[in-house]
Amino acid sequence: MKRKVLITRGVFPEIVEALAQRFEVEHNPEDRPLPPEELARRLEGKHGAMATVMDRFDEPLLARSPELRVISNIAVGYNNIDIAACSKRGIRVTNTPGVLDDTTADLTWALLMAAARRVAEADAYVRAGEWKVAFGVRYFLGQDVYHATLGIIGMGRIGQAIARRAAGFDMRVLYNNRNRLAEADERRLGAVYVERDRLFAESDFVVVMAPYSAATHHLVGAAEIAKMKPTAILVNTARGGVVDDAALVYALKHKRIAGAGLDVFEGEPALDRGYLELPNVVLTPHIGSASAATRMTMCRLAADNLTAVLEGRTPPNLVNA
Ligand code: GLV
User: Fold this and answer.
1) What is the pLDDT along the chain (321 residues), one digit of tens a residue?
2) 136-154: b or e for each residue (b if 16 or more CB lie within 10 Å)?
3) Which of 32, 57, 173, 316 is the most buried (most CB within 10 A)?
4) Burial grade of 166 (CB within 10 A; 0-12, 13-18, 19 or more)
5) 80: number of CA atoms within 13 Å, CB side?
6) Positions marked active-site
7) CB of 75 closer than 6 A to ligand 1?
8) Alpha-carbon distance 33 to 39, whole Å?
9) Are 199 and 222 within 8 A, CB to CB?
10) 298 touches ligand 1 (CB under 6 Å)
11) Whose CA is nearest to atom 1 of ligand 1?
């Protein structure tokens, strides 16, 4: 008998078709996260789930799906899943690391550049028909990116991809990470390890690229923002909750720092409404890895991970050994 699989969100048709050749597939084709009760109901009797970071897998949900053997996240992060509870129940958890590093680094740079040079604000100005004088000497003055200091908090694969791009702008790169990199890697990246306080104080651009956990909750809050330069820009393409949104809204509103570029938010998509009134923040809806090619690769990898577990093989990207 075919094993049963739930795909919780709209994915590419070829992925659904490929999985349907091996498994009995139930697919939520919509771009609507399943509310917890509906997710629990549709998961009953399933052996595998292909899921997104919006789907919460906690102990009460797992208790209702005793047949579940694998949760395959279409994401590198997996803070939506109670890993310890899964391990206890023998449920394998997989993710999609590696394939999204450069795409996410690109979006990080897009936000950094947009915030530095006020691109979104200027675009809105032109569209609103407010551009009446051809050239203004003091129009939309922003921050230079080249030769500036970039501070990266979280120097894993994506952090390193962000650092590599800084070489093209002749930037000084500082970083902070749980573990210091090997000297050869620091040299290759041209990155200098510093304590977080120094990184906040000396950086013109602070990029957050740390995974969310209890240890990184509000890693950037009012105290850290207070250490930043008034001309500095904060970029978060990691996870909502690593930055304290209320503190950042306050700081942006009172020009304690110059701007921000944000792709992730606490409680997204219901972000702090304060952001919407601020011109000095560029907002994108959690699209860090959203290039057509990368999202397809992530879905393929997630399907491979799921298939491997259900066929009794070791998946390429097992999170809980
Ligand atoms: C997306 O947020 C991911 O973790 O890949």
Assistant:
1) 899 999 999 999 999 999 999 999 999 998 889 999 999 999 999 999 999 999 999 999 999 999 999 999 999 999 999 999 999 999 999 999 999 999 999 999 999 999 999 999 999 999 999 999 889 899 999 999 999 999 999 999 999 999 999 999 999 999 999 999 999 999 999 999 999 999 999 999 999 999 999 999 999 999 999 999 999 999 999 999 999 999 999 999 999 999 999 999 999 999 999 999 999 999 999 999 999 999 999 999 999 999 999 999 999 999 997
2) eeeeeebbebeebbbbbbb
3) 57
4) buried
5) 24
6) 239, 268, 286
7) yes
8) 9
9) no
10) no
11) 75
* Ligand 1 site, residue 71, Cβ cutoff 6 A: no
d(CA 265, CA 259): 16
Read off the DSSP letter of residue 270.
S
Encoded tokens for 320: 């809980």
Amino acid present at 187:
R
Please tell me if the CB atom of residue 155 comes closer than 6 angstroms to any atom of ligand 1. Answer: no
> Which structural domains are found in the chain, ordered by start?
4-99+292-310 (3.40.50.720), 101-283 (3.40.50.720)
Q: CB of 76 closer than 6 A to ligand 1? A: yes
SS3 233: strand
Q: Cα(53) to centroid of ligand 1, in Å?
A: 7
Residues 6+ apart with CB under 8 A from 191: 152, 155, 163, 173, 174, 175, 181
The residue type of 218 is H
- C-alpha 238 – ligand 1 centre gap (Å): 8
First to last CA, the chain: 27
Helices (H), 190-273: 196-202, 222-227, 245-253
Closest ligand 1 atom number to CA of residue 75:
5
Cβ atoms of 231 and 258 closer than 8 Å: yes
Residue 97 · residue 103 · CB < 8 Å: no
Residue 74 alpha carbon to ligand 1 centre in Å: 8
256 - beta bridge partners?
none
